[in-house]
């Protein structure tokens, strides 16, 4: 809309914003660029309605419990559920499909949550990594906006190699998606110092 009116604005353009909002498209693009992500299975609502057993078998054949189920096009933790077994996976998919006809099922992992801000257009720069310190099972809408049981630790206490990798992957993801202006890259960091990009 702003581009149609020839008005300047801050942040990513239409295509980048649309791709980054869509979790499935984001994963496809970042996978092509070699950015590490947790294993995942995209699931269309029609696939699930036509053959739920096949969907469950596909998820359980590729992933281990716990799994996280997310609508493909929502943010702020809306519609996200944690599944510890097949019954919970079924309920989680039902919840996700209330918000979108496409869902993504991700491998759950024990990890810290690290964030890196990215700034710039051609000359891309990153900030120090920060950590979302939380005392809840997972960082859903209530934890973010209702109970607000989180603190930010900046800079995050991570080894230098993790610091550099987080910045490197954040720049790569930002560039692969055609980012401009500013963005934030969220990572999972395991106790083995493995980084997985969660979203941008």
Automatic annotation (TrEMBL):
<dbReference type="Pfam" id="PF07478">
    <property type="entry name" value="Dala_Dala_lig_C"/>
</dbReference>
<keyword id="KW-0963">Cytoplasm</keyword>
<dbReference type="GO" id="GO:0071555">
    <property type="term" value="P:cell wall organization"/>
</dbReference>
<comment type="pathway">
    <text>Glycan biosynthesis.</text>
</comment>
<dbReference type="InterPro" id="IPR011761">
    <property type="entry name" value="ATP-grasp"/>
</dbReference>
<comment type="pathway">
    <text>Cell wall biogenesis; peptidoglycan biosynthesis.</text>
</comment>
<keyword id="KW-0133">Cell shape</keyword>
<keyword id="KW-0479">Metal-binding</keyword>
<dbReference type="GO" id="GO:0009252">
    <property type="term" value="P:peptidoglycan biosynthetic process"/>
</dbReference>
<dbReference type="GO" id="GO:0005524">
    <property type="term" value="F:ATP binding"/>
</dbReference>
<keyword id="KW-0067">ATP-binding</keyword>
<dbReference type="GO" id="GO:0046872">
    <property type="term" value="F:metal ion binding"/>
</dbReference>
<keyword id="KW-0961">Cell wall biogenesis/degradation</keyword>
<keyword id="KW-0547">Nucleotide-binding</keyword>
<dbReference type="GO" id="GO:0008360">
    <property type="term" value="P:regulation of cell shape"/>
</dbReference>
<keyword id="KW-0460">Magnesium</keyword>
<keyword id="KW-0573">Peptidoglycan synthesis</keyword>
<dbReference type="InterPro" id="IPR011095">
    <property type="entry name" value="Dala_Dala_lig_C"/>
</dbReference>
<feature type="domain" description="ATP-grasp">
    <location>
        <begin position="27"/>
        <end position="200"/>
    </location>
</feature>
<dbReference type="InterPro" id="IPR013815">
    <property type="entry name" value="ATP_grasp_subdomain_1"/>
</dbReference>
<dbReference type="GO" id="GO:0008716">
    <property type="term" value="F:D-alanine-D-alanine ligase activity"/>
</dbReference>
<keyword id="KW-0464">Manganese</keyword>
<dbReference type="GO" id="GO:0005829">
    <property type="term" value="C:cytosol"/>
</dbReference>
<comment type="similarity">
    <text>Belongs to the D-alanine--D-alanine ligase family.</text>
</comment>
<keyword id="KW-0436">Ligase</keyword>
<protein>
    <recommendedName>
        <fullName>D-alanine--D-alanine ligase</fullName>
        <ecNumber>6.3.2.4</ecNumber>
    </recommendedName>
</protein>
<comment type="function">
    <text>Cell wall formation.</text>
</comment>
């Amino acid at each position: 809309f702003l581009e149609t009116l020839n008005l300047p604005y801050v942040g990513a353009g239409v295509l980048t914003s649309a791709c980054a909002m869509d979790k499935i498209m984001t994963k496809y693009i970042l996978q092509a660029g070699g950015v590490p992500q947790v294993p995942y299975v995209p699931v269309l609502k029609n696939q699930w309605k036509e053959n739920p057993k096949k969907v469950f078998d596909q998820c359980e054949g590729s992933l281990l419990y716990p799994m996280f189920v997310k609508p493909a096009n929502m943010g702020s933790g809306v519609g996200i559920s944690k599944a510890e077994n097949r019954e919970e996976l079924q309920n989680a998919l039902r919840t996700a499909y209330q918000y979108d006809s496409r869902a993504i099922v991700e491998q759950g992992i024990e990890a810290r949550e690290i964030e890196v801000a990215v700034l710039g257009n051609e000359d891309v720069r990153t900030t120090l990594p920060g950590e979302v310190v939380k005392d809840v099972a997972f960082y859903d809408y209530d934890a973010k906006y209702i109970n607000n049981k989180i603190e930010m630790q900046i800079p995050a206490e991570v080894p230098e190699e993790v610091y550099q990798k987080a910045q490197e992957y954040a720049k790569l993801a930002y560039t692969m998606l055609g980012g401009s202006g500013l963005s934030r890259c969220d990572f999972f960091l395991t106790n083995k110092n493995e980084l997985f990009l969660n979203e941008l």
